[in-house]
Design a protein that fits this description.
44% of the residues lie in helices and 13% in strands. The chain is built from 13 helices and 9 strands. Helix 6 (140-154) packs across helix 7, helix 6 packs across helix 13 (292-314) and helix 7 runs parallel beside helix 8 (198-211).
Length: 315
């Protein structure tokens, strides 16, 4: 299969979007589009023949497991799953020892866990590339799928405005970086005290200054959603915050993407949600149902974005 992208990422970890250049991220999106076309046309892809990926899950997942495991198989490789109760990363033995052992058995490691420093530490001692499939701080693979979806819908990324409404969580942190790196304006609407991580705000403002775009962190959902091309939301209560659920429902009740909020956006605006969705909380059931095809396409695009990442850091 001809490599359409002039990328030299072999052996590099995919943990933080800011570890890559805007051009590299653009080329990965282009690669994902190419791989998607080949999968849709049932073309056999044997780029990862005889290669093995180990996947470690400290958090449960639907989309992450299926998109990585099936994506790896479509590339011609194989994948094995380790669950938290099987090795308890950093508990039964050190992360350093686990990384040194696991990475000797495989060609690639994917980790979905809580503490971001755990995946950074694992990568430091791994002999093979490591992919961040979600930490409490960031979710770079999801944002690559989001950017792919936006590119497919609008035919471009430059100059568009994405408005994120809700909790300033790991998704929001990574959206700030990914959007600002690739020329999108980004506005975040969240309650006071629930803003995204300051490190990511600073990074986004740096990239926005370089690209002539803007970053706004607002506590008013109406202002945050005005003139948006993309409205994006996520659950108000993430895994590990279950004891805050009722409190958060009260705090975030005005931060729902619904028909009223949608009137502030541009007429051709699309709705994105990384899923799972708690309908009639962060998004009304009516708005979700009207935009379900785009949201499900976004979920499907996780596989193609990750296939592009796997191919380029492992081949």
């Amino acid at each position: 299969m001809k490599n359409i992208c002039k990328l030299d990422l072999k052996g590099k970890h995919f943990i933080n979007l800011e570890d890559f250049t805007p051009n590299e991220l653009q080329l990965l999106i282009k690669e994902a589009q190419n791989l998607k076309s080949k999968v849709k046309s049932k073309e056999e892809i044997n780029l990862m023949n005889n290669k093995i990926m180990v996947m470690y899950f400290a958090k449960p997942s639907l989309r992450t497991r299926l998109s990585f495991e099936i994506g790896m198989k479509k590339l011609g490789g194989d994948a094995y799953v380790l669950k938290q109760d099987e090795i308890i990363l950093g508990k039964r033995e050190s992360i350093e020892d686990s990384a040194n052992v696991i990475s000797r058995y495989c060609d690639l490691v994917m980790i979905r866990t809580f503490a971001h420093e755990d995946i950074e530490n694992f990568a430091k001692h791994s002999k093979v590339p490591v992919i961040n499939a979600l930490t409490d701080l960031s979710h770079p693979c999801q944002i690559m799928a989001d950017l792919l979806t936006i590119k497919e819908h609008f035919g471009k990324l430059d100059g568009l405005t994405l408005s994120y409404i809700g909790d300033g969580n790991n998704i929001c942190n990574s959206l700030l970086v990914g959007c600002s790196m690739l020329g999108l304006n980004i506005k975040v609407g969240c309650p006071n005290g629930y803003e995204p991580n300051q490190k990511y705000i600073n990074l986004a403002k740096k990239y926005a200054k370089e690209n002539g775009t803007f970053v706004e962190i607002l506590n008013n959902p109406e202002n945050a959603s005005s003139n948006a091309d993309i409205l994006y939301t996520d659950v108000w209560t993430s895994m590990g915050q279950e004891n805050e659920k009722e409190m958060r429902k009260e705090i975030f009740k005005n931060y729902q993407i619904n028909n009223t909020l949608l009137k502030n956006a541009n007429d051709n605006a699309i709705i994105l949600h990384c899923l799972p969705a708690h309908k009639n909380e962060e998004i009304s059931e009516e708005v979700f149902d009207k935009n379900a095809n785009t949201i499900y396409e976004e979920a499907e695009n996780r596989m193609y974005a990750q296939m592009a990442i796997i191919k380029n850091i492992c081949c």
